[in-house]
Each structure stands twice: as structure tokens, then as C-alpha cells.
Automatic annotation (TrEMBL):
InterPro entries: ArgJ-like_dom_sf (IPR016117), Peptidase_S58_DmpA (IPR005321). One of its GO terms (molecular function) is aminopeptidase activity. Transmembrane segments: none annotated. Pfam families: Peptidase_S58. It comes from the Bacteria. Belongs to the peptidase S58 family. CDD domains: nylC_like (cd02252). This is Peptidase S58.
Length: 319
């Protein structure tokens, strides 16, 4: 066990990023096709192939998921993942060729770094080629490279965030992991203590409660669609698509426990849930536990972040 999502059998992760432009993408590969569901809660999402994951639709499994910066431009990265998988002989056999199934979600990081440089097809290909079962790097890597939080007091008073991952093993052999790129408009807090780790800052750098800021000025300083937290929860369970969608829905509780506010008009929060099909387990149990593990991954994303783009991180200032 390495404590990240790659502890789940059949799940591989690869990152690629541009540290000068401050953007990147993360690919979660399934060694064998995995049943997948999705739940979109934010009102400013950027996604690809999510309709396919509705239980009423035909395809039952996916080959990879791509999480990317770059706003809608970053959806191009998923095409590179498809190219990589096609070259490896992986995809849905249509009888006329292989079509890799690669749902994707993006976050907005154009406000930090160089907004003219976004994740590309080539970057997606590179991230897929790097996918492995090793410990997942966290912080300013992959889709977390340009992630920020706490923009309610204006972007100049925001803080750097990143990508985080966590996993746990349970009695009976159930393994659950999560990976999340945290790019919220609000603050991030420890679920047990309520201590704010990162969020909007005042003029002297003190971290503020988002709720206190909202009471004073609402969202007047925040352009719409400039945020979004995206992630994946995965287990080694045998799932139906309906169960996977329910797990994705329940996993959002982990965001609600750690990010305030969440699921706003300014966020496009999207979570995928994957099942790699090794053991029988209750979808309700997996959903409840996934929320706990996702909450841990959110905290790890913020704590692993380093200052970048002129913004401080959790480890560089005192709350």
C-alpha cells in the first residue's frame, strides 16, 4: 500500500505539466475496462463523454479518465489519451476500429501562469505514457499544477492548491482510492476540526472564512467559471453503471466536508467513480467510505501545494 489511488488493483496514474505556464493534466488508466459513473454538481462544468456514463446508455466501461487544467481548451488532452490507448490496442471494438472511451473533466487555471498555454493532445499522450502503479505525486503536478483556492476576495488574495490522493483497505479485501484536483472558489478546511488551511486572504495575508467574505460582498470580484474541483474515486468492487453513478454522487459529500462553499454557480465540480471488478461490495458502503477518502485527498492536495504564480500555499503562511 502506498496510500494513493494506485493501491486499487488495475488503476494507474500519470501526470504531465508545464511548470512555467502553470497548467497540466492527469490521466487515470484502467488496466482492464472499468465500470464508471459520474456526478456533476457545480454549475460551470467542462466535461467530455459524461453522457455516455448514464445507465440508460450503451457503453458500460471506460479505458481511462482525463483530468485537466486549461478550462474548455484542456479537453483536447483526452484526445492524446485516446491516441496512446489506440496505439496500445486498447479500446471499444466497433468492428471498424478501436475507440478508446476516455471521459474527461477540466478546471479553470487560466488566471495563473500563461493563459495562452493549455494542456494539449501531446500533453495528454505524455501523461498516459507515464501512467504507473507507483505512488502518485501530489501538489503542483498534473491537473493540480495551476489549481488555486479562496478567490472570494479577488484572485490576488487567493492561495495555491494542487492535486491530492488517498486510499484505504477494508476488511474483506475492499480497496478504495481517490484523486482530486482542488480548484475551489471557497476555502478548504479540516473536516474534524474546522481549521481553515487555505482560502481567501485579507490585506495582511490572514486567511479568512469564505462565509464571512460572502456576507460582506458576495461574489462580485469573481468571474464566472473560474474554478472547479475534479476527481475520481475508484474501488476494486464489481459495480453496475447505476451503482457507480450513485457512488460518485455520495462521494461529493467529501467535498462538502472540506470545501466551503461548494457546488456554486462559479464551480464545475465533477466526480467520476470507477469499479475494477474484483470483489462484491455494497454500493452504499463504497459511497460512504469514498466520501471519507476523498475528503482526505482534498486535504492532502492543499497541504502538498507549493507557492506558485505569486500565490502562497498552506505550508508557506500561517492560518
Amino acid at each position: 500500500m502506498n496510500g494513493t489511488i494506485t493501491d486499487v488493483p488495475g488503476i494507474l496514474v500519470g501526470h504531465a505539466e508545464d511548470n512555467e505556464a502553470l497548467t497540466g493534466c492527469t490521466v487515470i488508466l484502467a488496466e482492464r475496462p472499468a465500470v464508471c459513473g459520474v456526478d456533476v454538481r457545480g454549475s460551470a462544468p467542462g466535461t467530455r463523454e459524461t453522457d455516455l456514463l448514464d445507465p440508460i446508455n450503451l457503453v458500460n466501461s471506460v479505458h481511462a479518465i482525463c483530468l485537466s487544467g486549461g478550462s474548455a481548451y484542456g479537453l483536447d488532452a483526452a484526445s492524446g489519451v485516446m491516441q496512446y490507448l489506440e496505439e496500445k490496442g486498447v479500446g471499444l471494438d466497433t468492428g471498424f476500429g478501436l475507440v478508446p472511451i476516455v471521459p474527461a473533466a477540466v478546471l479553470f487555471d487560466l488566471s495563473v501562469g500563461n493563459p495562452r498555454i493549455r494542456p494539449t493532445r501531446e500533453m495528454g499522450y505524455l501523461a498516459a505514457s507515464r501512467a504507473s502503479r507507483q505512488l502518485v505525486p501530489e501538489g503542483n503536478v498534473g491537473a493540480g499544477t495551476g489549481a488555486t483556492v479562496g478567490k472570494l476576495n479577488g484572485f490576488a488574495h487567493a492561495m495555491k492548491s494542487g492535486i491530492g490522493s488517498a486510499s484505504r483497505k477494508y476488511p474483506g479485501g475492499l480497496l478504495i482510492g481517490a484523486i482530486v484536483a482542488v480548484n475551489a472558489v471557497g476555502h478548504v478546511q479540516e473536516p474534524d476540526t474546522g481549521r481553515i488551511l487555505a482560502g481567501p486572504r485579507d490585506e495582511d495575508g490572514t486567511i479568512l472564512s469564505s462565509l464571512n467574505v460572502m456576507q460582506k460582498q458576495a461574489f462580485s470580484l469573481i468571474p464566472p467559471g473560474t474554478n472547479t474541483t475534479i476527481g475520481v474515486v475508484a474501488s476494486n468492487a464489481i459495480l453496475t453503471k447505476a451503482e457507480a453513478n450513485k457512488i460518485a454522487q455520495m462521494a461529493h459529500d467529501g467535498l462538502a466536508r472540506t470545501i466551503c462553499p461548494i457546488h456554486t454557480m462559479y464551480d464545475g465540480d465533477t466526480l467520476f467513480a470507477m469499479g475494477t471488478g474484483q470483489i462484491e461490495a455494497s454500493a452504499d458502503v463504497i459511497g460512504a467510505l469514498s466520501a471519507e477518502i476523498l475528503a482526505e485527498a482534498v486535504i492532502r492536495a492543499v497541504r502538498a501545494a507549493k507557492p506558485a504564480g505569486g500565490l502562497p500555499s498552506c505550508d508557506s503562511i500561517k492560518s
